[in-house]
Amino acid sequence: MSFMAVAYIPSFLEDRSLFVKDRANGLYGPLAFMISNFITGLPFLFLISVIFSTIAYWLINFRPTVEGFFNWVMWLFLDLVAAESLVVLITTIAPIFVLSLALTAFANGLWMRYSPFCPSDSAYCNLNSFFQSVGGFMVAPKDLNVFWRYWAHYIDYQGYVFQGRW
Q1: Torsion of CA 116, 121, 124, 129, to 10 degrees
Q2: Which segments within 17-140 are labelled E, that is strand?
Q3: Cβ count near 92 (within 10 Å)
Q4: Burial tier of 113 (Cβ tally within 10 Å: 0-12, 13-18, 19+)
């Protein structure tokens, strides 16, 4: 689901263009824009997490307890918040639609291989394995060299979500 955060790029670019005009008129600053944009997005991300989890959690046959369900919802919600934040960061740095889309897809694809739900015989996973090899699915984190371990492995938000770690 975090890969689908790229769908937020067009909306954020529209909001950003409106912000540029409003800031030029002295209406509000960047901090107010970013905080309000973040806060207004949280209920929608939570709603998406709950709706998806209500359907998928029981179909996947995870631990059938209320505690397990809400633990899953929490991690999925935090994953979506991190994915949307990544979209905002990249789109702010590169405010061109195609470039933002490519950079965000690259960043998400780089860490997608962390997912234990991506089987090695999946065509999608094999096509993207070049960018998805730093998370532990193809190479154990302890076997990664220092360069890959520190800049790619430890900053991977999806890895923290799938492993349920802080």
Answers
A1: 70
A2: none
A3: 14
A4: buried
pTM of the model: 0.76
Q: Could you say which DSSP state residue 28 is in?
A: -
Tens of pLDDT, residues 102-142 = 888 887 766 554 444 454 444 444 434 433 455 555 566 67
Cα end-to-end span (Å), the chain: 20
Closest to 111 in 3D by CA, of 72, 83, 84, 88:
83
Token output for 5: 């955060």
Question: Which single residue is written with the structure tokens 């690259």?
Answer: 106
**79: closest CA among 162, 155, 7?**
162
> How many other C-beta atoms are found inside a 10 Å radius of the C-beta of residue 28?
12
- Whose tokens are 């291989």? That residue is 113
User: What tokens does 147 get?
Assistant: 């360069």
